Amino acid sequence: MTEQKALSKSLRVAVLAAAASTGFAAQADEGMWMPSQLPGIAGQLRQAGFQGDPASLADLTRPPMSAVVSLGGCTASFVSPRGLVVTNHHCAMGAIQLNSTPQNNLIANGFNAATQAQEVSAGPAARVFVTTAFERITDRILADARGKTGRAYYDVVDAASKAVVAECEQEAGYRCSVANMYYGTDFYLVRQLELKDIRLVYAPPEAIGNYGDEIDNFMWPRHSGDFAFYRAYVGKDGKPAAFSADNVPYQPPAYLTVSTDPVAEGDFAMLAGYPGTTYRHRMAMEFADQVQAGLPWRVDVLGALIGTIESASAASQDAQVRYASQLAGLKNGLKRAQGELDGLRRSEAVRVRREDEAAMLAWLARQPDAAATRADIEAAQALIAQSHASRERDQLFGLMRSQTQLLKSAYQLQRLAAERGKPDPQRERGYQQRDEALIEGALKQVQRRYDPMVEKALLAELLRRYRALPANQRIAEVDAVFGRDAAATQAALDTLYAQTRLGEEAERLRLLAAAPADVAAAADPLLRAAAQLLPAVLREEDADKARGGDLLRLRPAYMRALIGYRQSQGRAVYPDANSTLRVSYGKVSALEPRDGVHYVPLTTVAGILEKHTGQAPFDAPAPLREAIAKGDFGSTADPVLKTQTVDFMTNLDTTGGNSGSPVLDARGRLIGLNFDSNWEAVSASWMYDPRYKRAIHVDVRYLRWLLAKVYPAPHLLREMNLPAE
Amino acid sequence: MTEQKALSKSLRVAVLAAAASTGFAAQADEGMWMPSQLPGIAGQLRQAGFQGDPASLADLTRPPMSAVVSLGGCTASFVSPRGLVVTNHHCAMGAIQLNSTPQNNLIANGFNAATQAQEVSAGPAARVFVTTAFERITDRILADARGKTGRAYYDVVDAASKAVVAECEQEAGYRCSVANMYYGTDFYLVRQLELKDIRLVYAPPEAIGNYGDEIDNFMWPRHSGDFAFYRAYVGKDGKPAAFSADNVPYQPPAYLTVSTDPVAEGDFAMLAGYPGTTYRHRMAMEFADQVQAGLPWRVDVLGALIGTIESASAASQDAQVRYASQLAGLKNGLKRAQGELDGLRRSEAVRVRREDEAAMLAWLARQPDAAATRADIEAAQALIAQSHASRERDQLFGLMRSQTQLLKSAYQLQRLAAERGKPDPQRERGYQQRDEALIEGALKQVQRRYDPMVEKALLAELLRRYRALPANQRIAEVDAVFGRDAAATQAALDTLYAQTRLGEEAERLRLLAAAPADVAAAADPLLRAAAQLLPAVLREEDADKARGGDLLRLRPAYMRALIGYRQSQGRAVYPDANSTLRVSYGKVSALEPRDGVHYVPLTTVAGILEKHTGQAPFDAPAPLREAIAKGDFGSTADPVLKTQTVDFMTNLDTTGGNSGSPVLDARGRLIGLNFDSNWEAVSASWMYDPRYKRAIHVDVRYLRWLLAKVYPAPHLLREMNLPAE
User: Fold this and answer.
1) Which of B186, B226, B289, B676 is catalytic?
2) For this UniProt entry, which residues form the secretion signal (chains A, B) (predicted)?
């Protein structure tokens, strides 16, 4: 999977903490470090080969870290004083698509603006976020929380965060967010300049930018030129502004120097970006649950849903087409879940984490505040165990809404009707005014993705599993709507789907526009069913938030114990990833994925020709093939391999959200762009196993060669101070 | 594919030639050398690392070559003075299966005779052939051929060969054959002692001997313990005898010493065995035809037949079961053809061979006898072009008989009826008395592999392609039986299959037992059709033999030119493989199968656990997994890897028939057993590409460890003079 994260922007939150980490030595090459932690691990950074001053990396508002920006889900970086931004091709895909026409298909042909005037808008939603301030605000966020528990704790933290953000965003052109670091231990305010006039400057053809597509996805060896250039523009006053022909290039506070040196196995490398979510510091019981119950259950259910769709649509080509996308999503989910399970087992993650936690608790027992800390940890464990106990029920109930089309529509219509009664800011996320267009789009799409036979079969399978749960797991509303045994369920499904009119697009859109009270009182049986189920959903959400509040209160005890224990070992603790800026360091690394196989960490253009079939996704464009055959690689050729490199692999610590992250050498110069991980590392969100965790990058020498010799953009090379060939 | 070749034993022919090769230097590591050629390439053998005396390898009736025996399709070797034979597990599969019962499944459990008394018969058909004499008899074979052409040349060579064999086999216990070396240039008589009392001594469970099965087939890295032990017995008089409890172990003229030294990348290795067929010295036009027409056509037709079976059986689960085996065979054939095509293109085989041949012809033009030689070569080329011109037609006609069940049965019954009128030795191969049991078995099997819808669809597809051929390719008999257009063909097929009674097993067996004249006159429409087609088959066979006779006469001119040209380059020429004993030498070699991937040439037991799923073919037995976990590898552990190796890879030159071949070290000691090639080398039957040609072997250290620690056979270790652990 490419390392892009579809982040709900309303949730995007980015703060850095000056954590209790100074002077620690960390596990070699593992870690998504907050820049502020880097001076504290300066010794190990230098030992690993970094030749700059670690202190210079500590402040993300100053160069070079201020050159690293977020696109909202992807990472990018400035590479010229005139606002030139480099990121992944797949991160710029929306902009490429937007500017494509049947006459000029930029996806197929690529794009190369000869002058600034020819640069095209990346669209009104495109953003570049430049961090301008950050501040620890733990005391303010938790001021009113002391002494509270459960839902009250949650609500106080939520309200304080919203107030801080609202205050911070009073100045136009800025976007603010609050980040929760170390699971509620600390909170930070991040203020970002929100650049809104973003233009597409250069993109290779998709057959280069996404060479290998789904087949090579997650795989090494890789031969993708996954890069594209944007330019950020601002108003003539230098302030963020929407697209206008009068706008001028933004002058960033810093930009990266592109390296002209070769890259080789063992070289130091570092990477900065906005990794989304990791679970490295979850408790041992959570690791065990994931490996022993969560993932196996997920594999089982996804497999069953795949089988259900396949048999229910076996006789109908039409139904097969309608469910192709949902089926592909389920298969991808199953593959990932199985890969994560295999990886966690291969790494013996449960045993490793359990032994580590036991040692931590033994250390804790010898500390002065052991009893209170231990009590909080045990209280948190009890809450987690509680959520595990109802997980299958909760997830089955969720799948009934997410894996259906008509029932989901009915539920969305009822939920929206209920939420419309509240002031907009108090509405549930996903049901605010700005979400209504999205809901309308989904209600329109139903027609292309729905078949009553298949939807009934999916619900029958989910309800069969639901009925097999222990009696104390039953939900009264679900039983009332779908009955308590197989016969009743089948009868209920037959009636609901025979009588509902939600299969008609006009009817769904009419209900979307109807008054909330009319929706709530509508007689359509599926809408009635949704109205009956709604209280159960709200009850579950409320319980989640109450538990969430208590975990926000209790988990910090565990984190403080872990940080203290690591300190006693002379090691620092990086916070789990939460979409805030992090730095990883390591080296260009080979991989032994399995016995007898060795992956070389650099690929070459020879591999492009080897994979070329003429059919997508292996349809290397003729100009590329001709240039490879010609062998004119100039200054971008590798001095040892005597040919042009394409991608390279490091052991850098990454996860989803790191797409587009600049990969830097020992002197902080740009040597690559991160764009994927290897399949063996799919379990790395839980555990970094140095034997298997690798990150996959475009070599900037490939980028330079394409710009110099294949789809020439000499003006961009000049702008980046790079040799013409 | 495992390197076993199902050889028609009546065709087995083994002779060595003292070829015109003394003093040549060959292409490094390419070559299936006749032992008699080895003294001539002694320099390069020693340079490659061989530490013995090349002269000692020259005579295959003396040690150590006399330790290398044929099982008829597989190679094996003696490893003790008491007739102990080691070969591949897959070569001993027939014997293992024969001795399996529901109560004692040797396939699943393996077999380990604690004493000689417990060794079990490998069955009445099992053989070990020990070469005892060889003699160049070119003059005798060709004595009456001079001046003849075409079919007459063929018949004279055939008659002379049969006479020589009959004379040689007058002494009981011997099997003789004539080998054609360098495409008719030389003929040799091989005399072999035919040992008939072969007993199974030891076999690991299939989950070790065939670990990975079809999934790992042709693949590296590999983790298969593909070995088993036989013992050859003779009568008390020391002469070959059928199984008898009174028989005694055979005392071989030589046996191999099993190495106790480690194996490492770069080590010298050599291999002796009976490779089946290669095409390395075919003409450039044959290479071009194979790549440009033969293989693409094969890929196309096999794909079409696969599609035909799949659609014709889509609605019937029953038909799908009946055609599962034929479908698997076609898919395997398609995969191989595509792999061969891809490999020949990757190696640019046509260009390489064409340039080499052009250089040879340029050299030839400067030789005294150039004109006559060139005339013969051109005559041969014309004949080959002729056979290429009708290849599609001939192969389609062949597929009509080989890919059907009822039409094939009808044809076999008519052909047998025709052949039964001749004295047995003059009957066509496959229709002699000894073949009748096989035909009966096939006629019985029809019931399990036949569905009229599918067979008609297959014939319709083949006939559709046949009808699309140029008019001059049409066969009158085929047109008469199946009509000249689609409608006529469909009507003919409908009538034939509606009215035939050959779908009934009793009817087929009745016809098998019936008098030839009654079969020839039978009214069954499918039998009538076969009778109508028979003259066309006979005509085609006759034309093949006539062309074969002329090529036998003309190809030697090409071979003499090639040998002379190579000699001028200081290089020797090994004859193309023809199931006679050959020796390859090379080294333990890594492989770069594609850009970014490096295959390490030794695998370890860690890979067994990595692949283990608990489900066949990756269901490593518990005793093996426990022994691996225990890590007690004793003297068989690799000193560098610090663990137990399993398989290793060399660049030795092999092909089908080399299964079970002993792999020897620089001092001639047994270090492995050959059992497969890598996928990248599937085109090696035409061209040895040193970048991709590898052979895959069981490491004898794995064998020793299994015998010492996992399924102990301390008596066998003692018998082979090996340490107990």
Assistant:
1) B226
2) 1-28
